[in-house]
Amino acid sequence: MDASINRRLNWEAGLFGIFYFSAMFFIIQAVIDPRLIYQIQEPLFFAESSFFVKFLAYPGGLMEYLGAFLTQWAYYGWPGSLIITALLALVTLFCLLLFRRWSVAPEWQLLAFVPAVILLGLHSQYRFPLSLTLAFCSALIVFYIYCLCFEKPAVVKLAVFTGLSLWLYVTSGAVLLLFSALAILLELMDRRHLWLCLPYLGLALLLPYISLKFIFIISEKQAWLSLLPFHESAHPVWLGAALCASIPLFAVLSRNILRIESRKRDASIIVMMVVILGLGATALLNVKKTDRVYLKVLYLSRHGLWDEYLAYIRTVPYQAPILSIETNRALYHKNRLGDQMFQYPQGYGINGLVVLGETRLRSPMEKSDLMLDLGFVNEAIHWASETLSAQGETPYNLRQLTLLYAIKNDMPKARLYLERLKKTLLFRDWARETEKKIAAAESHPGQLHPNLFRTDYIVEASNPCLDFDRMLENNPMNRMVYEYYLAYCLLDKDLAKFSARFAEAHQYFPSLVPVHYEEAVLLYVYVLKGKSVDLSNVQIRKSTIDNFSTFRSIMTKHNGDPKAAFPEMYRSLKDTYWYYFLYHEPGKSS
Amino acid sequence: MKVRSYIFLFLALCLLTGCSRVPPGELENAARTGTLPSIDPDYTDIVLPVNIAPVNFTILRPGTDHVVRIHGKEGQAITIRSVSGVVRIPENKWKNLLKTNQDDTLIMDIWIKRNDVWKRCAPIKNIISPDAVDPWLTYRLINPAYNLWGEMGLYQRHVESFRETPILINRAVDGSCMNCHHPSLDKPGNALFHIRAGKASGTFIMADNKPVKVNTATDFNRAGAYASWHPLGDRIAFSVNTLAIFFHVIGECRDVIDHKSDLIVYNIPRNEVTTCPGISSPDRLETFPCWSGDGRSLYFASSPPIEKYFVDTDGRQDLTYDQILYDLNRIPYNPDTGSWGETETLLSGEEAGFSAVQPRVSPDGQWLLFTACDYGSFPIYLKSSDLMMLNLGTGALDSLDQVNSDETESHHAWSSNSRWFVFSSKRRNGLLARPYFCHIDANGNISKPFVLPQKDPQFYDQFLKTYNVPEFARVPEQVSPQKIREIMNDNSRRKNAALDPGVGAPVPEKQTDKPYTTAPG
Predict the structure, then answer these.
(1) B432 Cβ under 8 Å from any chain A Cβ
(2) Which of A254, A452, A550, B5 is the most exposed place for a label (fewest CB within 10 A)?
(3) Interface ipTM
(4) Which domains does chain B have, with CATH numbers?
């Protein structure tokens, strides 16, 4: 190939690279959204030596340390996109450098983009830690250094391999196996120093074995698999396998196929671009939509972006207890729970209102948030502490515990968590501000938080209504608890209990009571013929009375058969409590 | 050029040395404040073991400069200058100073510079006891325990230095929950702990240099929990408990109740579990076993069964958990024949008005240290929990006011010479337990407690894990963490304890080695 064509191809590759990684940055930013990566991984990075030392206690710790440092910037969004893009560009750069060393024909060099595309697919899974990308990258760099020494005498190569392996295993864990496989492959193909394969293989197996048996306190899995891209979050599994296989495959193909220069160079480049872009699109399609929805929902609720939340949740085609729980919470905060809750899916019934059963163990922090809103401060501490126990320190649980203990006027405990936050890079300003507020509160002690209990009782984990009752005894003006009590009764279809509490509604709603409460009380009094409810203080909207007439006429028309009335009911009254009452089956999420 | 560099270096060193010295006379002529300096941790008016690590501290309400001079009657004084007020004492000089001033006073003079004026605080005077403390302290480091758990580990700290090494970290056993480490004081090297849940679940027992994994669950009992080594080192008393966690709406949110408990004795060479009606009565909840120093008595706590505490409220059965009071008991034991005597009540919870749990007898058999709390058997979550001591010779009860604080005190252990005890206290913040030491002399005089010294004196303000169940050990754990991991992960060599055929108690239900729902801590 003449020099001018070569230069042109380099230019084209360079331009493609710039275009490609710029596009990748915007895609990561817009489609993946690094804030959601932060949301699920919640990396905590302390600027202190004792934090660093902890990472030296196991292979791959250094990459995890670096990963924690870099991932924390995803909190701000675009810096996270920039970091991921830069790392993927670095991976591509070293692939290109390897291709040059292997004399891969220029038109095939676009294949160097493939590992980055696979990594993009893996990062679109949100849970995929940055430390794995860092480890892969360091394996590539180490392998490139080895390639630079490839023409040296065998003894030198052995020494280099040994040094690099040690370094790689300590810093990046089991990606050593990938590096060793590549080095062995090169030696097998080269055939000049075949005997080197044996010590290479021995060292690759010996290092994890010795680490496991004598050096680090780790599990077998950690010794043999740590930081390989077979992380539990690497879905589908073939993506991780493809990433590991890509470089050895290129090494093998570079011996023959990748050296053949295509006759139609321009055409082949276009084909390659299509392949790369196609892979990129595939990677993006890999974004797990349910995860994205879940994370977005949590992001919006944790940041109290309730309007945005309610607009977003309408576009979500999935249901899950935690989505309903957060939706109802958002509705309450926008003062719309009693008016609009049945306009949103309530298929999970009471399990979609309060965090019960298994959902508590899956979402302890969300349970803590809800308990804090409701005023159950001890329960909020309980569940924030469960998160701390299970997941370790995260910025969010440290902040939550600081605030909760401050609400309880328990400043020594609040300070304990605050001191930790002061050691972080991202939240130290928040910690310092909060410290000032705590100091001010201590010097001017005010009254206890109105929702704090005055008398003790044992939390009824399986009977939230009992807890709500006690909270209302403690503080009758806790409107959220009152509304949640009524909502619980509605979702539980316990209209007798609802009606008993409904009598107090005028205290909380001086003008009009929310629509769904009107619907429920009409149903209870006129259809179910429940105990008489004093409606003298209650003014029912005309629209509710009209709808109720429609409801009754539909039921009459179908001889009281809900099944037969379903199509009409769905058409006219699907956003009402009556519809929920007739058609919701406990345990079904439809 | 080279000479000039050396001169420059010399001058720089001189300058630096000069900077670190207070001009002569300034300290000697400093005015005396007459008050003790505030330091954290509080290492004032305490008795220090001759072999303790340096008691590094921070001067609270610091000035712009500080000088600390530590000295005794003998030996070379240690002078430390600290601008920040953080005082780190050189280890070797400290050791020499303690050695040369045993049974005498150690004085810390502190000068604080404020507004360009040096002031000298009243000297801190501590006693150096020639009674050495056992050189190792083992404990579990966990986040405050609830239902869920994550990273935790068993650690051992060399109390003569700042060296802390892991015995086992749960990441090596797939993140399983681990119970506390119990070393034997009579047979150094013997130790045990157990792992709950997962493949590694079981009890690790190291006896006579033979580490084994044992499943102590039998048809009679679930796996053992709280443990006590017999002085002979060939048998271990365990409690078997059925704990459940529940939550309060005010104060400390956590609380634990024991629904059913008994005591068992596991004979290591015979791989056999035995018991007797005196320690596993269906009419009592027995827990917290502790062998006497001569191995001829077993101390424990017990209460009436939980059924007694249910009351009928409007047709509903309510459990009056806060009425459950434990007694302190003792039962004679013949280690040669394995026979038991009659149970004796040493202290009645009902009469005393508190629940008496966690009895620990000093190895010389003179003192019985226990935890007194408002109710129940889980004092670590009760703010009311305090240590108390019973003189086994006279029967006198000491409420240990000089030891206790407003926060929780519990989980205590004796050193092998009966002159020190360690206990966990939440006095620093009410949330996280820290290990505190006290000296007790032959007459039963107990010194003010002091916290385990750390290299970084601000360590306890930053460390969010709790020190769970501190225990003294005379030697470090003899099995490496890697070997322990291997043993615990290898179920093919796990020994399943057999039930003593002489135990004829009816078996109400098949008990298995189930993971508990809560981690004692």
Answers:
(1) yes
(2) B5
(3) 0.90
(4) 24-129 (2.60.40.3780), 136-517 (2.120.10.30)
